[in-house]
Amino acid sequence: MELIALSALCSVSVSILLKWLKEKGFEPIQIIVWNYLSASILCFFWFKPDLSHLSLQHTPWWLIIILGLILPSIFLCLAKSLQFAGIIKTELAQRLSVVWSLLAAYFIFHENFNTLKFVGIGLGLAAVLSIILAKGKTQNSSHYHKSIMALIGVWLGYALVDILLKYTSSLGLQFSVTLNLIFIISFIFSCIYVGFILKQPWLTKNMMAGLVLGVLNFSNIALYVKAHMLLKDSPAIVFAGMNILVVVFGIVSGLILFREKSNWMTVLGLVLGITGVVCLAQAM
């Protein structure tokens, strides 16, 4: 359980750091670039992917390239959501992206479902609807619409990555190889975007912040995978523990560190979301 708690803490720490750095004048897109550099290096040394036997012909490069483009885009969307919607709503939307992953598992991968999974999905959809529509007292119309768009982007984006990763693994490519290639390609594409399209000057402070963010980002993944390996007979514990702890840590950090205020619709969304996660865990 300690690994699950540490993984959840790293996950929320990524959001806390990203939100805090944005408020301090750092450039999120540059931070995201360097995040992928440190994440790819750590991935190589931690998971030790066998890249030497990588088949250029049989590797689904189109999927790897798509994921390499999508991942930094969603990370940037996460930064926008943290800015406009706050950490509490963002963390819940990110966690409940599992709803789309499960729907894909049912309709695309033809997995068997029981009643509890359908109930969990229904509660998850209701939870996301509640937090997306919840309007803060100080939000103007423009800010509110940006909040909605960013939350929807996070919700759909993380689900899309999860679905594509599952599809990639179904083609026979190892998880460690896939992850390392995606991180490398994300770094390359992000560099091209910042340097040649945005033409931003590279700042050392953004690089240092991004390298730290990459350590937290990768630690979240590594600890979560390790927890699944150690508790391979109890995947429900890992699933429920991770998702619930991330939401709880997100609430605590949002209320204490960033003084975020919640209305009854946000609270309803949190209750529905956590109940939905418990139902989905019980159904595993």
TrEMBL record:
UniProt xrefs under InterPro entries: EamA_dom, EmrE-like
Keyword Transmembrane: yes
GO CC list: membrane
Listed transmembrane segments: 6-22, 29-47, 59-80, 92-109, 115-136, 148-167, 173-196, 208-225, 237-258, 265-283
Domain of life: Bacteria
Keywords of the record: Membrane, Transmembrane, Transmembrane helix
Keyword Protease attributed: no
All residue ranges annotated as the EamA domain in the record: 3-132
Pfam family, one: EamA
Annotated protein name in UniProt: EamA domain-containing protein
